[in-house]
Amino acid sequence: MKHLSYLLLAGVSAIGITGSAYAADYNQAPEFAKMVEAGALPAVAERLGEEPLIMEPVDEVGKYGGLHTAGMVGGNDRNMLLKFTGYEPLFAWDRQWTGKIIPNIAKSYTASNDATTYTFELRAGMKWSDGNEFTAEDIAFFINDVVSNKKLYPSIPSWLLVDGKLPEVTVNSPTSVTFKFSKPYGLFMKSVAGVFGTQLNMLSKNYCAQFLPKYNPKAEEIAAAAGATDWADHMINMCGVEIENIQRWRNAERPTLEAFLIVEPYVAGASQVTFHRNPYYWKVDPAGNQLPYLDGAAFTINADKQTALLAAIAGKTTFQQRHIATTANKPVLFDAKESGGIELVPRRVLTTADAAISINLTHEDPVKRAIFSNKDFRIALSHAIDRQAIIDTIYLGQAEAKQVSPTTDSAFGNKRLSTQYIEYDVDTANKMLDAVGLDKKDSNGMRLTAEGKPLVLNLMTVAALGSQADVSELVVQYWQAVGVDARLQTVDRTRFYEVKNNNDHDAVVWPGGGDGIEGYLDPRYLMPFSTESNYAVSWGKYYQGLDGGEEPPQAIKDQWALYEQLKSTADEDLQAKLWQQILEIAADQFYAIGVSSSPPGYAIKSKNLGNVEVNSPVSWLYPNPGPINSAQWYLKN
Fold first, then answer.
1. Can you tell me the distance from the alpha carbon of 357 to that of 371, in angstroms, rounded to the nearest whole number?
2. Which residues of 227-247 are buried (b: 16+ CB within 10 A; e: fewer)?
3. Residue 566 — φ and ψ, nearest 5°?
4. Backbone torsions φ then ψ of 263, nearest 5 degrees
């Protein structure tokens, strides 16, 4: 196995020098210095612990003060907060996402030669935001008491399972913890560095155990007094046990290891969400200044993305990509560089497709299921789309026609999957639709099913997604032109997930994920993997062991078997071979329809904001700006 151990090394973005060498020279925000002097807060060296992480800034040592400002959209924009301050795993991705992982909460790890056992060494004296020590017990608590509890986790996240089993977690000491899997797990460390890896160290046992009956016999009484359904409902409300639980951002008392503490929570009716720097944050710069530099953050909650755009143009935003950094908005944001005091910062968007169109192969309606699951029907719909026209109209020519697939010229790509059925060919589309039994039409030229009934295909999208919603409007028109009565449904994000997760959709549009190394960890569009596999939610549920799952055809089972082999081996060459076999089956099945690659990405930032990484990657498993560490951002003036 490569990289059997990892110790902190100088020359990477995290510099490993124990804190004791700098203890006499630590600096802190002026407000904390005043609190220490008043006896309201322990000394900075005590708060940092014995071995803080020394973080090399992107450009230079910053200075204290100021707020990060940005605009959220709607009442369920929780992941904007996650990306700003919620990424603190044991080991993290490097800033350019080369595939290398670097120390973060853990200072080192060792792994057995057979990739079954992993031991993490933690930082002595690290503390939660409430001043209590973070120890190996907190990690064991998550595995043994939280994720293994069916009321808190009806389905255990697949990245934690090998052969359907959780690892055995052993606390060796307050600063040492061992994970032992029943079989080899070669992808474990990459999973730890991914966005879901933050689950391992997200919960303080000292705080969250009070809500579990195992530790508190009065847990049910406390839950009832709080108006919760039961103890599990109350614990989720108070601790936000999963990284995407919106409750994570609603309880200001919940201890955290993150750089910023929530002050004004993300609750119903709120007009903004605010944060303040964490006095116990465990990172410093090379000069010994405790991070973060910024005093905090203020996120305005907007009804629509246009309001967020106007705020950026007016110079009220320090940094933002989400909602506003689209190809269509680029000219107006460029023109606002002087008046708004902003800059456009290039970013690398790593997606399998900018807009992935998923036709529901597990539809509850047997007539629609038979039509949608016919591969030739999906091929016909693909040929009916004029991709170049969409690229020219929506992306101003800055994209390439392709299917939902990893980048073709990368080690993770597959040319057949990427380029098949992308030709705009209306004659072929019509002939194929006739051949699958949709040759009869009504008086308006719309196709009828074999039973003589209208075939209506509702394409659902989320308006706040920007270019995906714009693409959907044009796709509907192209499908109508070949006689498929496609109708656009624009909903908010909450409604989208409610309909889709209940398998009540005909088709949906969502950004394509899973490019590069992310494909190994979250191959949602390349095989039915989870409820995010929008073309086959029921098969995804079956794979995850969720209620409502449906056993899939053999080809999908073959992919699953190959993926389990890929997960288990630490041999990178074998992983690559297994991956290509998975992609070949994906090409045979043609699960989802792509339109194009993503256009060149960018974010906007205030000219006054320092230490912002240029051309950094953007992906769900690389939740930018989390991995580039917003704690070292600072305002120059």
1. 16
2. ebeebbbbbbbbbbbbbeebb
3. -60, -45
4. -110, -60
pLDDT band at 26 (very low <50, low <70, confident <90, very high): very high
Query: For the chain, what is the total number of helices (H) and then of strands (E)?
Result: 21, 25
Distances (CA, A) of 231 to 32, 139, 222: 36, 21, 8
Residue 466 · residue 473 · CB < 8 Å: no
Taking the C-alpha atoms of residue 109 and residue 392, their distance in angstroms, rounded to an integer, is 49
Per-position DSSP letters for 103-151, written without gaps between them:
ESSEEEEEE-TTS-EEEEEEPTT-B-TTSPBP-HHHHHHIIIIIIT-TT
103 phi and psi angles, rounded to 5 deg = -60, 150
> Residue 67 forms beta bridges with which residues?
296
d(Cα 70, Cα 316) in Å, to the nearest integer?
Answer: 8
Lowest mean pLDDT among 83-92, 340-349, 528-537, 563-572: 563-572
Helical (H) or strand (E) element with 368: helix 366-372
What average pLDDT does the segment 527-535 reach? 96
> What would the mean pLDDT of 8-34 be, rounded to a whole number?
61
Pick from 344, 302, 352: nearest CA to 326: 344
Query: With contact defined as beta carbons under 8 Å apart, do 203 and 138 qualify?
Result: yes
Q: Which two tokens stand for residue 628?
A: 């580039």
What does pTM read for this prediction?
A: 0.85
- In angstroms, the CA 558 to CA 577 distance is 15
Q: Which of 230, 226, 231 is nearest to 212 (CA)?
A: 231
Cα–Cα distance, 235 to 247 (Å, whole number): 10
Question: HEC profile for 581-634?
Answer: HHHHHHHHHCCEEECECCCCEEEEEECCEECCCCCEEECCCCCCCHHHCHHHCE
List b or e across 166-204, with b for residues whose CB sees 16 or more CB atoms inside 10 angstroms: bbebebeeebebbbebeebbbbbbbbbbbbbbbbbbbbb
> Considering the chain, what percentage of its residues have pLDDT values greater than 90?
85
Neighbouring C-alpha atoms within 13 Å toward the C-beta of 390? 30
pLDDT at 10: 29
Encode pLDDT of 145-190 as tens digits: 999 999 999 989 989 999 889 999 999 999 999 999 999 999 999 9
Asked if the peptide bond before residue 52 counts as cis, ω within 30 degrees of 0, the response is no
CA torsion through residues 280, 284, 290, 296, sign: negative
Cα radius of gyration (the chain): 25
Residues 169 and 100: beta-carbon distance below 8 Å: no
Domains in the chain, start-ordered, CATH in brackets?
Answer: 353-594 (3.10.105.10)
Quote the distance between the C-alpha of residue 186 and its chain's center.
21
User: For residue 87, what is the DSSP state?
Assistant: -
Scanning 125-245, the segments in alpha helix (DSSP H) are: 136-141, 188-193, 205-208, 219-225, 231-239
Q: State how far the alpha carbon of 476 is from the alpha carbons of 361, 416, 482, in Å.
A: 19, 26, 10
Q: Which of 164, 240, 165, 170 is nearest to 198 (CA)?
A: 240
CA–CA separation, 298 and 218 (whole Å): 37
**What is the Cα–Cα distance from 530 to 2, expressed in whole angstroms?**
29
Q: Above 70 in pLDDT, residue 23? A: no
